[in-house]
Amino acid sequence: MERTPSLDTLNKVGQEVRLKGWVRLVRDHGKVMFVDIRDYSGVVQVVFVAGMLSDEQVALIKGLHGEDVVEIIGTAQQRKPGTENADMPTGTVEVFGKELTVLQKAAELPFDMGGKDLNLELPTLLDNRSLTLRHPKVQAVFKVQEIIVDSFRNALKEKGFTEFIAPALVPLPTEGGAEVFKVNYFDKTVYLGQSPQFYKQIMVGVFERAFTVGKVYRAEPSVTTRHLTEYLSLDAEFGFIENYEEIMDMAEHVISRIFDDLNEKGAEYLKLYQASVPKFSKPIPRIKLSEAKEVIFNETGRDIRSEPDLDPQGERDIYAWAQKEYGSELIFVTHYPTVKRPFYTYPDPENPEETLSFDLIGRGVEWVTGGRRINEYGQLLESAKKWGNEPKDLEIYLQAFKYGMPPEGGFALGVERITMNVLGLKNVREASAFPRDMELTVLITVLYFIKPDILGDYPDMLLQRIGLTEDKDTASVFEKQIGKPQDLNLLVYKELEKFEKQAPESYSSWNMRKDMFLARVVSVDKKKKQMVINISIPTGRSFSGKDMSVKIDCESEDSAALAPYSLAHLKSNIEVTAEAVEQDSIYSYCLNEKCSEIGRKCVLVKNLP
């Protein structure tokens, strides 16, 4: 007998079926036992009646637990009225089990996998990724991503685009503002691609309309709820544009198609998260960055008009305004400053200080970035030089423009961030099957900076007081048996508080620079009560922000982030509401052990720029 996928039992009522899959849930009611079986097509309920089975079979079934791999032979039948399960696609049928074979016994699970939800802290979710990915609600995240990627492809193919594969190793960085990963390539230095930008522009000269789907890498030393060092980027580029607004029109076409497909093909996955696709007016509202900053000032009183970009709060503010004015959860912000865009971005002829570029803000978060590119060879060459690039390093790229390139532009969107935003996930790592960030999976972070030339030997004193000694001849990695995570946090806090009282002038003159002392907890083993702490002096990046940085974290490990704020902020004990805690740039921390409660005395913090 051929195997029957779970979903096909809907069409096999009255017929004998052979199921193979994993045990999702066992409900033992004595004489009647229910076993939910999961396979690639879904989940179906199997009913076993003890009186119709051998003692050996009954013992086998009663010994089952989650993730056991089994084979079942039985008969598909309609469920009795009133026993249907509307939450399951197969909820109108069940299988009357006759015989069960255990193909592979699973180890005892570390947590319950049979519930509708998987209520785990983020570190637990990621540390057990091979297991947690099997849960239907977690699976749904990646079913949604599959729809997003397929929709992107189909929407562009309908418009005559051709897909190509961009290289992951590139000879030089493509995005001026992003850090890069260096790779030793046969005694030469190359980089993991920050974007396929150069290659998709080259392909405009080949196919006129081109797109690519691939991983990109950003070596940004940040740990926030919406950034990854490796993510899936969907990139499109096309030529013979009349104006840069055609690029936004194309991006809107793609986004609209994604939403339509999610509603049509992904309704069951959205339902699991009680989620819906964003509402937006057609066309999506468009506003210049300078005008957006004026709107934010007028609406909130917060003055960011001198800033070259929108900060996370600014993105939320302009989103709120778009909702109020247009009933739209999406808005294009255009005309970013030349200094904030790469050298290939086309300057606005009416104001060369601005560019014909845009970001699409979705529900308060940047979704899409794009714009028109410089297509005239001489202009592009001069812009590249102005930005400090050597023409010889850009030879293959410039060659495409030297031999004729029409007016062109394009855009890119990050799959994980859109997935997170649509489903309402709290952390972008939940939207990556195998997330990559500064520590691969972040558990708890304790961060503080000290300027050595002001403090003298104070860093050594501080380390000694919390039970650590600095080893300058090694990579400065320390391991120490300690108690609860809060113990170290409080020790750091107390020592910094002492120093503020002892040397207030020095304290107030601290400045965050690349020569500052850095301590970061990179892993926590609760069973062993052990932390691994990295002690280092950053040399590749200058930090900017408040005078000093201390992070007091607690049991809520999934909220870990690099968060600079002054000691005065720690003392202010600002009340943080549940709504505020969910926002991207606001996290809650406390100095007591009641870390699961909202409304406790906490501190208000913002991300590193």
TrEMBL record:
UniProt protein name: Aspartyl-tRNA synthetase
Top-level division of the source organism's lineage: Bacteria
Subcellular location: Cytoplasm
Residue intervals of the Aminoacyl-transfer RNA synthetases class-II family profile domain: 142-435
GO cellular component, one term: cytosol
Ligase is among the record's keywords: yes
Molecular function GO labels: aspartate-tRNA ligase activity; ATP binding; RNA binding
Family of this protein: Belongs to the class-II aminoacyl-tRNA synthetase family. Type 2 subfamily.
Main subcellular localisation: cytoplasm
Key words, A-Z: Aminoacyl-tRNA synthetase, ATP-binding, Cytoplasm, Ligase, Nucleotide-binding, Protein biosynthesis
